[in-house]
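Forwarding the complex inputs:
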Amino acid sequence: MKYSYISHLSCPKCNKTYDHQEPQQLCTCGSPLLVNYNLDELGKYVSRDSFVGRTASLWRYHEILPVVNEKDVVTLGEGMTPLLPMPVIGDEMDIPNLYMKDEGIIPTGTFKARGAAVGVSKAKELGVTELAMPTNGNAGAAWSLYAARAGIKSTIIMPVDAPKITRNESAISGSNLYLVDGLISDAGKIVAEAVQDFVLFDASTLKEPYRIEGKKTMGLEIAEQLNWNMPDVILYPTGGGVGIIGIYKALTELKQLGWVEGELPRLVAVQAEGCAPIVKAWKEGKAESEFWSDSETVAFGINVPKALGDFLVLEALYQTKGCAIAIEDQSLLQEQKRIAELEGAFICPEGAATFVAARRLRESGWIKQDDVVVALNTGMGIKYPDTVDVEVEVLQKGEILRK
Amino acid sequence: MKYSYISHLSCPKCNKTYDHQEPQQLCTCGSPLLVNYNLDELGKYVSRDSFVGRTASLWRYHEILPVVNEKDVVTLGEGMTPLLPMPVIGDEMDIPNLYMKDEGIIPTGTFKARGAAVGVSKAKELGVTELAMPTNGNAGAAWSLYAARAGIKSTIIMPVDAPKITRNESAISGSNLYLVDGLISDAGKIVAEAVQDFVLFDASTLKEPYRIEGKKTMGLEIAEQLNWNMPDVILYPTGGGVGIIGIYKALTELKQLGWVEGELPRLVAVQAEGCAPIVKAWKEGKAESEFWSDSETVAFGINVPKALGDFLVLEALYQTKGCAIAIEDQSLLQEQKRIAELEGAFICPEGAATFVAARRLRESGWIKQDDVVVALNTGMGIKYPDTVDVEVEVLQKGEILRK
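Prediction (whole assembly, two chains):
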C-alpha cells in the first residue's frame, strides 16, 4: 500500500504528459496541468470504508492526493469542515434539503487553506525553497503561512484594496509582502516578471498543478458527509475557478472508483454582477471567457477578470448540465445578514452570493423542491469586517438598560 | 441507551443539588453549579471506541454532555479542533513533545463557540427565549450567533475597547448589542440589573451551568487525540477560567470512567502581567482571588479582574500540582510573531501567552524535557488584527520587483 497513488501530470488541452517528481508549472501549450492517479491500483487497496476513523483533516484522503511521502505533509489541521443543514433559510427558499459546506472553519478562515496545504506540501517534497504569487488576499495569506510552516520563503503581491486582515496574516508569517495599486491581474504581471528574474517557483492560481488537488477535497468531503450520495446541485462562488474545477475532478474520480453512483451534481458558478466573465461565456455557449474590464465587487475573492482555468470551469458546467449566474452586491450583502440572523452563521460575501443564487434558481424552477442542494461558503465573515454596518449605543458605567 | 447521561446539578461549595430539567443559574449560596452524570450507567453502554467514526464535532461526546434530546442540539459544526505538533518552536524551547490545541479552527474563530453551542442548546431545551450576558467580545459574538441559530433573542454588552470584529459578529446576528465605557465587570453590573428588570436568562460566565460542559470537550478531545493518554502539562490562558475548569472536569470524569490512566496533567493558568489575580492568589496559596484594579493587557480575552469561578480554577491548579504564571504584553506579542514565522500559525495574543509560559517553565526546569506539553490557543489571530504592525511597500502597475 502506497501513501499516494499519483501517476503523472497531463495537459487537458494537448494531452502532453509530465513527470510529477519534478517541479512543473504550465504545459508548454500554456494550459494548466492536471494530476492523474492509478485509480485501478488504488481501488484494490482502498475502499470508502477506509476513511472511517481517520484524522478529521483533508489528509484522510491521502491516497488520492499528490504527496508521496507522509513526512512531507505540511498541515495546520485543515479540512473536514462542517456540512450544515440550513433549515430556516431553506424553508424560506422552499429548498428543504439545503446545506452549507462551511469553509470558514479551517486554518486562515477560508478554503484557500486547502490549496495551500497540498500545494506547499508538494512544493516541499519537490525541493522548492522559494515561491511567489499574486493574490486577492486570502490565498496569499494561506500560502504565506503554510510556506512559513514548511520553511519555504514566499513573495506575495496583493491589491492595495485587498482585505486588510489578509495583509496582516501574510506580514506576520515573515513573507515578502507587496501591495499593488491595481487588480490581481496587475499583481500577476509583476509576479510573472519576478519569477523569471529571481528563479522563483510560480505558485499563481493554476500555474502549479497541486492547488486543484487540495480544493478537490471539498468534493470528497461532501460525498463522504452525504454518506457517499451525490447532491443534486452544488453552488460555488467563482473567481479563479479552482474550487469548481477541483470539485468536478473529485466527483469524477469518485465515479471512476465506483464509490458514488448516479449523475454528477449540476454545478453552478456564482459570480458578482460587477465581474462575471464566466457567466457571460456560459450564456453565449463559449468554451473560454473574455477579460472583464473595470471589474468591481465587494466580494473581493471573486474579482477575477479572466481566469486561466476558465475553459475547465465552463467544461464542468456544460458536462454536469449546470449553469452560471451573477449576483449584484446589494443582494449578497442582504443575504449575508439574513443568514446570520436566521442560521447564526456569519459567512463571507462570496458565500452569501451562492445563497442568493439558490434562491433565484429555485424561484425560476431550475432547482426543484426535492433537490439536495449544497451552497459553498468559502470563508468566514470576520475576514471582511467592513461589510457589516454597525451602530451601537454606548452606555456609561452604572447605567441601566431602558430596553 | 440514552443520548445524555446527565443526572443533576450540584453546588461545589455547599453540595446542594438542583434539577437539570429546569433553568438554573447560581446556587442560593452564590456559587456556580456543576453538572453531574450517571457515569456508572454510561460506562455500561459507551466505551472509548464508541467515538470512532462519529461526526468530527464536540457532539461526538453527547452521552457526557447535558442535552437530553438530540433535536435540541444547536450546532455550527464546532469541535474536534486540530492538535498540532509544534516541532520547530518545540525544538527551540527544548520541549520536543510540544503540541498546540488550536481553538481558532472553530465557528466564530474562538473556543467560546464550545460554551455557546452547549449552553445555547441546553437553554433551548429548557425553553429559554431570551438571554443576556456581558462579554469581552468573543463570548458575546459566539452566544449571539448560536442564539440566532436557536431562535433565542440575546442582549449583549461589551466594553467599547473590545475587539471591533466581535462587535460586527454580534451585530450581524441581530442581537441587542450595547457597548459600555468600562470593563467587563461594568458590563456585568448592567446585565445583572437587566436580567432582573426584564426577566432574562442570565448567560454570564458561570451564572449558567452548561458553558463549562462545552469547554470540557477540549479536555475530552485532547485525550482522544493523544490516543487516550494524558499529556504531562496543559497550559491555558486564564480569564474567566471556564476553560481550565472544564478541562479539569473532563479529565476527572475520564478517570472515573476508567478511560484514561495515570496522573492528571499539571494544569497551568497563564495570565497577563496587567491582570493576574489568579497568579497572585496561587502564589499566596489562597483559595480565592481578589479583584485586580486597573487591569490592562492587549490579550483582551483574559482581562478579567475577578472571576466568579476563581476558587475552581485554583482548586484545579492545587489538585494537579500545576502552577500559575503571568506574562508581559511585549513578550506575548513577540511570541505571536515567532509562532507565525516558525510554525505558520497566526494565533491570538492569549494563545501566544501560553507559549511564552511554556518557554519560561522549561527554562526554570518546571517542565521537563520529556514532558508531553499541550499549549491551548484559544482563538485566531485575525480576530485581533491590530496586534500586527504592518508596513508594506506599494507598487505601481507594471513596476518590477527590485528584491
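Chain B touches chain A through 80 residues (CB under 8 Å).
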